[in-house]
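Student: Hello, beginner here. Can you help me understand the protein record under this note? Any guidance would be welcome.
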Amino acid sequence: MSILFAILLFSVLIFVHELGHFITAKLSGVQVNEFSLFMGPAIFKKQVGETLYAIRCVPIGGYCAMEGEDEDSDNPRAFQRAVWWKRLIILAAGSFMNLLTGLLIFAIVFAPAQQFATPVVSEMEANCSLAEGGLQVGDRILSLDSERIYVQEDFSMLLQLLPKDAHSLTVLRNGEKIVLPNVPTVQKEFANEDGTVSLRYGLSFSVEKATFGSRASYVWNTALDTVRIVRLSLQMLLTGQVGLKDMSGPVGIVQQISVTAQASPDAFSAFMNMLYFGGFLAINLAVMNMLPIPALDGGRIVCLLLTTAAEKLLRRKIDPKYEAYLHGAGMVLLLCLMAVVTFKDIFAIFRG
């Protein structure tokens, strides 16, 4: 069931993304030749007016094929003949729809919540290292080493991603922002109620009652936190902190969704955890598609802005085939990377 859910999830996210391109193209007067879900030979297709609607047999991807998207066309309703700002809206609409989808999913996931944890320190155990740096009960932690604390879970996550013995904390104390420049963040052994000992930071956080406002705030902050996770992941990839072995493609993501579901205590929790994963993926897709990489929407937007500026300076139209070559090369490289990552994920499953 988790595998079926993952396939359905990918299908929905792709459909919503392409739907964003489709709706804005139609509203902008751009001719859409085909709107297709999935790739490969068609298992269903229907011509409605100028647009062919199709469902294809390979459950990967999908597309919204517009007239004159990657080539010059005499059709006055071709994509390349639309005003530049309309083309920009069409290109950005896919990611915008994925962002809205992520927010909607998070809103559904957090709707049953009765309370939310906040980054406000409610208790500190004796000998807590953070108290030595000036942190006090009642402090709301706003940031750690200039990284904003959106939700309470950010505190432990950032301590893991930024491993060192001391950090700079910005806190809100009695309505005033205070910077604690050198707070020790060392885990110590603390006694548990059952007599055992565990390694932890030695502080607890407060909770607040869930209201409409707090739910909306938590949904938005979770979305911002997800965007930040994507940014930190890309930084770690570019700096060599992580490599190809740490990347996952569709197969690896499906496997992770399955693991998440199996670790849940009951069917409802499994569904909500998988749904949360879906919101995380939706916002990931929104951000990744806006990266300035050829073949991605972000790369197309960069090319659009550069081409528009060049055409105004040179006072002549630039043949769109050159941009098409660039995006074609980018697509080949992305597909090769996806193939490598997919084979790695499959090998890891069989090896495990």
